[in-house]
Fold each of these.
Amino acid sequence: MIKNISNLGDAALYCDFGNDISKETNSNVIRYFKTIQKENIEGVNNLTPSYNKLIVSFDLRKTNFKSLKRLIENLDIKKSENLKNKRIQIPVCRDESFSLDIKKLEEKLKINKEKIYKNFFNKEFFCYMTGFIAGMPFLGDLDKNLRAKRLETPRVKVPKGSVGFTEQFANIYTFESPGGWNIVGNTPLNIFDSSKEKEPNLINPGDTVIFNEISIDEHQKYNE
Amino acid sequence: MSKNHFKIIRAGINTTFQDQGRNNLYHIGIPFSGAMDNRNYLLSNKLAGNESESPALEFAYQGPLLKYHGDKINIVVTGDVNFNIKKKKDLINGQCYQSYILENDDELDIISTNKSVYGYIAFGGKLDLRYQWSSCSINTKANIGSNNGRKLEDNQEIKISHINKNLSNKKLNYVNTKLENIRIIKGTNFNYFSEKGKKIFLEQEFNVSKLSDRMGMRLEGKKIENVVDTNIKSEGLIKGVIQVPADGKPIIMLSDHGTIGGYPKIGVVISADYDKLVQLPTGSKIKFKEVDLASAESLFKLYELETQNLISQI
């Protein structure tokens, strides 16, 4: 499952699951992540799962690379580990005031916006990871016809709730932040809530997400 | 209005409450945060008679001007800092690593840090602060922590809910030393860079740019050329990682860094040198030196031993 464990600096393990970016590879990452989290290993202070990597950072006062590597190599990872995934519907409004990059995207992809949205709404997405900014989900995979590079010059401020595309992934800006993804719409749903300390993220790695279209009226009234 | 409190007359450039930071939240996108210079933070608390991991006020470059209202209280400033204490009849030129007793209407004026970035004020007592994920550290990017996750502003109050009874004076002889080099371990993408690029990274000087803050330190210097790919598949980051984007200029991840990044990692600053790294102000020169993992681990043991020795002298 883990192809290789190396050190990232003196206080983290860099677990590589191979070059392939797929749900299968990512499910392995998440299985390791959940198992290590449950084990509550002395000295481990953070776990960062991503598409095909897991970074385990630790307190150098309590453990070190060598002993933690041995421990993790010998973990019993059950294939049947129940990932308890949720299925989440996300309402998205594609009104012009929200779809900041749709025109550029039509040019980049050489297809019209009706086709872009047809291939995006009501399709199943898989959450590979969350992060960069608090709660931001990285969701895949976008239809092959919808894959575009990041903006050449990233925006200084992307509005909260913006839904963006880059390469095979869609994401949601959980609050206003700089960013370079192609913005196609906006959700009124709160994706990250820091007042819920136990579960601040609406979407977690392994969850399934479906985007549903709503009108501008529905968007405005959503939080009333 | 609470009885014992400080009124913030001038907040300073970037003044926040910090403590030991938050663990186990990288996977949801929340960084560690916490005091940038951990040793100076721990020493400030110990000198003020607090538990060493209590919240302290961290400031950058120009610090706050605070006016005190209440019963006698100890305060301590650590770092390399110019500050004054204005009493009714006296103007005291403050010394770092020494506790002072403030009385009603006294003022603490943190003028500036000397050739360094961060300093700390510890108050001898307990502060009335909101904790989030067992830390009051302010993360201004995600608006998490005390003060609604925002830096302190003029006219706010710092409320003291309890004052330590023991007001005895404490002092420590300690001078912050500067490092010639910042030591690093090669990063996971070290081989993405040309031979010339690697040489530039390990042998040339870089300048700390003004675009540096609690999230990251941007460096200016000769371009480090990438010969493989200027992007990697986004993956986790940790404190001290040095990423090199397409423009060839290194960015070092600091305590409030984004948890995921997609630029190649050329190196990672060793844990023992982190406190010294964050204290390098805008315009400083920085030069990297490579060490292996075993040396980095021994250097950290030494650093930790020194810190514990200083704490036990107080």
Amino acid sequence: MTSFTLNGKQVSVKTAPGTPLLWAIREHLKLTGTKYGCGAGLCGACTVHVDGKATLACHTEVAAVAGKRVVTIEGLSPDSSHPLQKAWIVEQVPQCGYCQSGQIMKAAELLAINPKPRRADIVRHMNGNICRCGTYTRIIAAIERAAREG
Amino acid sequence: MTRITSHGPEVSRRSFLAGVGGLTFSIAFLGDGAPALNAAGKGDMGVTAWVRIGADNVVTIFNPSAEMGQGSMTALPLIVAEEMDADWARVRIEQSPVDARVYGNPQFFGHQMLTVGSRTVQGYYTGLRKAGAQVRKALLAAAAGHWKVPVSELRTEPNVVVHGPTKRRLTYGEIAAFAKMPAKLPEVAESDLKNPRDFRLIGNKAIGRADIPAKVNGTAIYGMDVHVPGMVYAVMSRAPVHGSRPQSSNAAAIKAVAGVVDVVTLNHGVVVVADTMEGALAARKKLMVEWSQGARAAGFQSEKDLDGYRHVMDSAAAGDPVTSKGNVKNAMAAAVRTYQADFYSDHAYHAQMEPLNAVAHVNAAGDGAEVWAGTQSLDGARMSAAKALGVGVDKITFHPCYLGGGFGRRSWSDYIEEAVLTSKAVRRPVKLVWTREDDVAYGAFRPMALQCLKAGVDAAGNVVAWEHCVVGDGRGLLTSGIQIPFYNVPNQNIELRGKSSGVRLKHWRAVGHGFNKFAIESMIDLIAADHKIDPVEYRRRLTRHSPRALKVIETAAAMAKWGTPRPAGRALGIAFTERSDSLSAGVAEVSVDRAKGRIRVHRFWASLDAGQVVQPGNAVAQMESGIVYGLSSMFSERITFENGRVQQSNFHDYEVMRMADAPEEIHVEIIRNNEPPAGIGETGVPIASGAVANAFFAVTGRQLRHMPFTPDRVLTVLKA
């Protein structure tokens, strides 16, 4: 049994040793906004925050987050009001949308540490997150908008 | 710039049977695509429907298509809303029931509910306009009866009928509360449809996509996200070589593992079912399967076989004609100059972000099931589930989910059948998940191909003879895009020569257009360069009899400021395509790192003529998407087989384009006209491949003739 804080609530989950945080969040706790894309830390679809740091949930054991604060896309804001979520809508970023939770969570980490990122900062920070629909130019535009408009 | 906000239609997946009263309009498409209409009376909610108007003034419009990011769940209801003069802010979109008799695409033989080939908007457009106009006409008639005034004195504003002389108003909801519909709805003529210049919704750039708000907060439900009480998890070991069968396995030992529910052997593999996802994955690692030998694909060596395609070309056997026009033999003999070039392309994998999956719950008696999945083939998936279970299609309740990408892969129902058969065996709800590695290993790929092109040119520099033969496996998968209907070439022989491989092949975004236009557009630039004619000018000549084609070429060239100097080391390349009745030209600005063999696309400009565009903002997004998808396939995407086994496994060795390699700028210009709508979602792919190939040629003076343009291939060409 592992206990941690998930989107501000105390949760406990019983999984086999070595189980990735991804399955605990998605299948045990049924918060499905965090996605399975590759299971190998290659695509970023499973990005969540652990104590504020963007973390690949497919590559993190549940045991490693014991006592820590985990935030998923569902906990980023209570009402889609995070500047990135608003900018994502204005820029009409998502297409299939499957990667976008991970994209937004990764971008949220960037703005938390660098509120006014340059384009090169954005590309460097976001390059681990694949979008197969190819929405990259819109992701950049949305991050720049969120940084500008707050 | 137009600012799009989250204000828009509510999206509901609730069954329309749970409606709140009001009017339900049922429109059944007939063979000719014209809607046959009838109305269900007030409160009669048991009829399948396109539109329901609630007494609360909410207009519910049903979407019959799959939503995989291409936006048709917004575009189709928007067409209905336009003609019925609905207030878009009061529209609610619901997924239609899966019933092809009512909701099928009239453009397809058999009217399937099939979201493929960029055919959705163009297939439904006229029928849905008529459906919307009919609803409006019925509302006007009801209001006229209520007020006892002639219909001619009435007009509509969004969700309101207005009586001009007295300025009285009735909302659609108020009408729905009292109206009794006639048994037969009014006829709709062409003249009842709006003049496109009066459109408020169609073509409105400020209208965003209805699915986007749910895709920024994690609430959009994909097949992977479905949870059903009592659900167990399944992962499968599939045949490593397509066509081989499980002969024996250590299933008994696996069944004894704690948490394992069952081990189920299917025709093409063995399924491990466990209480948890992690349990299923752990148990599968211990599963050992003995596979049958001798499958046809077992000897398939993709690289060696691709080299062998040249022998197929050189053999005496005739190909299957695709296009035969004029007399190529004579024209080629009379040509002043001839050109010949071979182009190669490798297999490509869809790499949709959501690996395949489905949830199935076969009932205790085994004679019916509920199924949840994202699929491009809505009624096909339902039929496949029924067939797998050996029951009538009416025994399957199918719940369509959002698709985390389709790109052609999700029009097969193999993953849905696996879930149904597994649930049938264990009699519990089953979530069957393909890992990424499963999705690659048991993929269904865009086929590799050899393109052999030959062209004859007259003294004036015009192409007078054209031969194009594509060699490979996959029949129609190879010939899409092989024709040159907009190029004025009097003598053409275009043909296919097949060579079976035994591996799984499938439609892939734009199907054969990606590699065919790469070859065709490269050939055009080869000829133009040899004549020292500018590539844009040469395409002007080739399309001078087709004003629409000429216009997309000139528009893209103007966007890119073709002919003006570029930053040092950069050059432009252009390509033209037709796809699903749309026309497009793309210009890529490229530089080449000659030490590393890497090509960089800095900027990309694209023009699009897709007739009447329903959602221009989304059309731009679809073009951007197609361009990135096409560029990705040009640079790194490559599936190879050894002894019939796929050699790649995940995103480390099947690399798709990432942000750092995407163009810094993509510009799309839509050419506005009121021609019938054409497909958009795939059109960016072929212009990307051709434009990059030609830009490389412009930078280096050499042609790359094997896609993808991996660094080793680039270096080889540069050193040659």
